[in-house]
Amino acid sequence: MKDSDGKKLNRLIVAVARGNAGCLDGIYALAGGRMLAVAAGIVGRENAEDVLHDSFIKIARFAGTYYDGSNPYGWLLKIVRNTALDFVKANKLRAGVSTDEIYSLSSSDYSPERRENAIMLERAMGGLDGEERKVIYFKYYLDMTVREIAAELKCGKSSVQRTIERAERKLKNLLESGTND
């Protein structure tokens, strides 16, 4: 994410909160791919577009609750995640956050250096086990707190904290060594 993209997204959400529903197109242009990936990771590709549609309705409805200047990607992706989980419950589907499907951190919009760094991070994520990938995803991609992650995973906060710390150490080592073996 470019800093300017985050600022644009912030402005668009604030504009939607002020009643400018036309700015939803801009939100989709900047964050739609990530939002669809989160939805697909939870409900599968066949239902992801329905979840995304419902998410945009919620974004329009609750944009007034967005705190101007906070993390716009985190706010949007939490809405998508919660909408997807509601979809799972309503349709009695089996929820499964597939972090393997949603880690596509590199973008053609990135500078070559930033794209290379994102690809290295994607590879390093492959060196983590499933639980470690999941907590890193929740913490850094969805901007969830340790308490929220613990509630989501139905385990203790201290367990989540230890998993995050272990995953961060592994990532650091993998990135420093340039391999994910």
Q: How many beta strands in the DSSP annotation?
A: 0
Strand portion, in percent? under 5%
**How would you classify the quaternary structure?**
single chain
Uncertain runs: 97-108
Q: What pattern of helices and strands is seen along the backbone?
A: HHHHHHHHH
Share of helix among residues? over 70%
Average pLDDT number: 82
> What is the 3D form?
globular
Characterize the largest beta sheet: strand count, sense, and whether it forms a barrel: none
* Rg (CA only): 17 Å
Structural class: mainly alpha
The DSSP helix count reads 9
User: End-to-end span in angstroms?
Assistant: 27 Å
Write a brief structural summary:
The protein has 181 residues and is mainly α.
Model description:
It is a single chain. With 181 residues, this protein is mostly helical. The protein is built from nine helices and no strands. The chain has helices spanning 3-17, 24-43, 45-62, 72-90, 99-102, 112-125, 130-141, 146-153, 157-177. The relative contact order is 0.10. Residues 97-108 have low confidence and may be disordered.
